[in-house]
Please model this.
Amino acid sequence: MEHYQFVNHILAICKEAKIEKLDTMLVPLQKAFEKEDEALNLPRKKEGTKELRELDKARNKAYRSLKFAIKLHLNSEEENNRKAAEKLSEVMSRYPGLQRANYDKKSGMIKNLVSDLYGTAILEYVKLLKIKSYVDRLSNNNKLFDELYRSRLKSSIPMGAFDVKALRAETDAALNDVLRRIDSLDDLEPETPNLTELIKHYNALVEKKHFTLSHRAGTSQTARKKRTAGYAALLQPGFAQLEESLGLPSKTLSFTGKTKGTGTKRNYQLAIKGQAGLDGKPRTVWVIVDKNGKLSEVK
Model:
C-alpha cells in the first residue's frame, strides 16, 4: 500500500505541473498504477460465498430430514415398512461422513446417493415409505448448490492473475521512465514552467520516504535487541544448574539470541564455550524454561 500511495503522489504532482512533454510519459504509469490498485483491492471473500453457505446448509437439512424419515420407519408396526427402512438405511450407510465432506466431495456423494435411491431396485422402497419428496428435496438443493458453485468458478479471478510483485516491477519501470523525462527536461530545457517546483516536490517525497524506511528499520532493530536482552535475563539464572546437569564447566553457557516457537513452548539456543562442532563453530543446545525458571535440554 505504501508503494501504491507513493506512485499516487508522483502522478498527482506531475499532473498538477501540467508539463506537456511529461504528460505522454504519465499514460503508462497511470495504467500500471490502476493495475496495482485493482490487485490491492481484491475482495477478501469470493462472490457468492454467503449464498453457497446457505445452500450447503439447505442440502444438509434435506439430508438429515431424509435420514430421520427412514429412521422413523425402522420402528414401524408394518413389517414391510421396517424391511424397506432397513434396506434404505443400508444404502445411506454407503456414504459415511457426507455432511463433513468438502463442497465438491459432498456434491458427488449426494448425486450418487440420489442415483442409488432412484434406482429401479430401491425406488420401490422409497415409494412404499412415501419419502420420495425427501429425496427430491435433497436432489434439488444439491443441484442449486452445484449451479452456484460452477457460476462462481466461472466469474472468479484465475489463480496468479494478480502477481503483485510483477505489477510493482511494471509500475517501477513506468515510474523510472517518468523520472528520466524529468531529468532530461532539467538538463535540456531547465526553463520549462513548473519544472523546478516539480523537482523540489518530488525530492521532498523521496526524502520523506527514506526517513520513514530508515526509522522503521531502526525501530525494528531496537525492538529485537530489547527482546533478546529480555530472553537473556530470563535464561541467566538457570545456567548454573543446567551446566551441572550437562557436566559442563561453570560459566560456559551463553544465549545465542536464537529462539523457536512461542509463549511457554518457546525454545532457546545456547552456545557452549570451549566446545566446537565438526564445522568449527561453538556447539549448541536447545532448552526450554519451565514456570520456575529451570532450564531443560530439548533433544
Observations:
- The chain is about 65% helix and 10% strand.
